[in-house]
Specification:
- The protein has a domain of 242 residues: Dihydrodipicolinate Reductase, domain 2 (2-Layer Sandwich).
- 33% of the residues lie in helices and 21% in strands.
- It has 14 helices and 15 strands.
- Strands 7, 8, 9, 10, 11, 12, 13, 14 and 15 form a nine-stranded mixed β-sheet that branches. Strands 3-2-1-4-5-6 form a six-stranded parallel β-sheet, sandwiched between helices.
- Helix 5 packs parallel to helix 6.
- The radius of gyration is 22 Å and the shape is globular.
- The structure holds NADPH dihydro-nicotinamide-adenine-dinucleotide phosphate and the ligand O=C1OC[C@@H](O)[C@H](O)[C@H]1O.
- The site of ligand LJPVP2WV has 5 residues, from helix 8.
- It holds the Pfam family GFO_IDH_MocA.
Length: 466
């Protein structure tokens, strides 16, 4: 009973976090500007930054300034800019959060870096892999940090999953399969949403599919050797070895003619372009595997998930709730699973099931002691938090804001943007004059995720987003 009460208190604190005293600041907070009065902005950065001493949301811009003013008022944001351009040119904005529709990520993130801002850019990073590469090339040219807002990668629950996966693996008992899903229940997202717009680079694979894609890639990196964020691992060669065995999409459908005409666009070849669900089977090379082993991985994504059976007589479809899950299987049948990798601060469970069916369960709302062990450090391919970092109520977004702040601080103190990711050795650490972000999503892996998206869309016949 007491633990249910304390968990409910943590969920409440995640939505209404304590405001730290200004004296706790160790540097002037980064001033963040938001492009667009987007629905995700409160969860992703506005609420998380309230408990941060390092980052403050100070301004917002929207296409309609009245909308921006209302948004600023309801979220306590001090300043409104009349256009995205004006916000990017402002001297009182240090960093930018880009939660615009997918098809606008490249344009506005590159505009931001060209105006000297570091950027936290929403997932999926861009419309396709070519755009992702272009975005990072511009960021490198302008010496700026760009981080994809893959929030779940920053939460300790994923690092605890990595620890248990790595612990179960031996050369004789390798990883033989990974499955991951992200299924939004039907009726949750309106047919008029940006997610169903081809010109805005929508689609279920773009919106939801990037989570299971990135999760299976992560699990295979954990099982491999040397594929650490910030190391000299060759992500591009790894990516070129990823094969899409098969892929299927369910096309977007709606009974609303107006929406259909406006949103369920035909793609460039005049064929239907938007998927409301996509699943695929991939073969992912195990980094560093002398036998060039490839792991079969299954991903499934949906923006409209329903139960198979309809309500009798009425014929209504019933939305299906299934928590985003990643499950890794080893040769001897051992399974390591993380349920609800997307919103672990509300609920998550890591289960290790032995070949005989015995189960052990774990949770990690803050960095667990396992993450500081040698095994934990090896497993955590994206870096690790110190045990002192985080509170049980920190959401994935709160951990992400912490990492972004620390990455940008490291950059400001002299570490090159490419190297704000965690060091891969003690020598490397010595060279990072300005420090690093303890946990990071490597830009090159963001590119690999988009390369998988392109390959899967090509395989479904829908063609990659343009
Ligand atoms: N990390 C996460 O957990 C989540 C990430 N996302 C990502 O964030 C992004 C935004 O999603 P979400 O907040 O749900 O979207 P919204 O539709 O709520 O917001 C998108 C914003 O884009 C702006 N915009 C600019 N041009 C257009 C246009 N042509 N059509 C529509 N909107 C436009 C609007 O800003 P304005 O106010 O200026 O009109 C709008 O506020 C997506 O990339 C999505 O994948 C979304 C949800 C969760
Ligand atoms: O976390 C998420 O949940 C629902 C999706 O539609 C959204 O874009 C995604 O990022």
């Amino acid at each position: 009973m007491a633990s249910i009460f304390s968990h409910m208190k943590n969920v409440y604190l995640s939505m209404s976090p304590p405001i730290p005293a200004p004296s706790e600041n160790d540097h002037e907070p980064l001033r963040m500007g938001i492009l667009g009065a987007a629905n995700i902005a409160p969860n992703a950065v506005i609420v998380p930054s309230k408990s941060s001493t390092g980052l403050e949301v100070t301004s917002v811009a929207a296409r309609d300034s009245k909308r921006a003013e209302e948004f600023a008022k309801s979220h306590g944001i001090a300043k409104v800019y009349g256009s995205y351009d004006a916000l990017l040119k402002a001297d009182d904005v240090d960093v930018v959060y880009n939660p615009l529709p997918n098809g606008l990520h490249l344009k506005w993130t590159t505009e931001a870096v060209m105006n000297g801002k570091d950027v936290l850019c929403e997932k999926p990073l861009a419309s396709n892999a070519q755009q992702a590469r272009e975005m990072f090339a511009v960021a490198r040219e302008h010496n700026r940090v760009v981080l994809e807002a893959f929030h779940y990668r920053f939460h300790p629950s994923l690092h605890e999953f990595a620890y248990h996966l790595r612990k179960a693996l031996t050369p004789e008992n390798p990883l033989v399969g990974v499955k991951a899903s992200m299924m939004v229940p039907g009726g949750f997202i309106k047919d008029s949403d940006i997610r169903f717009s081809y010109p805005l680079a929508g689609g279920a694979l773009m919106d939801c599919g990037v989570y299971p894609i990135s999760t299976v890639l992560y699990a295979v990196r954990v099982a491999g050797e040397g594929a650490r964020a910030g190391s000299n691992f060759d992500f591009a060669t790894w990516s070129s070895g990823i094969e899409v065995v098969n892929a299927d999409s369910v096309l977007f459908s709606t009974s609303d003619k107006k929406v259909l005409e406006a949103k369920a666009y035909l793609n460039a070849r005049g064929e239907p372009g938007i998927d409301e669900a996509t699943s695929a089977r991939l073969l992912v090379p195990v980094p560093g595997s002398p036998a060039r082993q490839k792991v079969p991985c299954e991903i499934s994504a949906s923006l409209k998930t329903y139960r198979d059976t309809k309500i009798p007589l009425l014929g209504w479809r019933v939305p299906k709730l299934s928590l985003p899950t990643v499950e890794a299987t080893l040769k001897d049948g051992t399974k390591v699973e993380l349920v609800n990798y997307i919103a672990p601060s509300i609920y998550h469970c890591i289960t290790v099931t032995s070949p005989s069916g015995q189960q052990q369960q774990y949770k990690a709302y803050t960095p667990s002691p396992n993450s500081s062990t040698d095994l934990g450090v090896t497993a955590a391919v994206d870096g690790k938090w110190e045990p002192t970092v985080g509170k049980p109520w920190w959401t994935t977004y709160r951990y992400m804001v912490e990492a972004f702040d620390l990455g940008v601080q490291a950059f400001k103190r002299g570490t090159a943007p490419m190297f704000v990711a965690p060091p891969s050795s003690a020598d490397d650490a010595k060279n990072r004059k300005g420090g690093w972000a303890p946990v990071w999503m490597d830009n090159r892996e963001s590119e690999v995720v988009m390369e998988c998206v392109d390959k899967i869309y090509e395989k479904t016949g829908l063609g990659k987003r343009i």
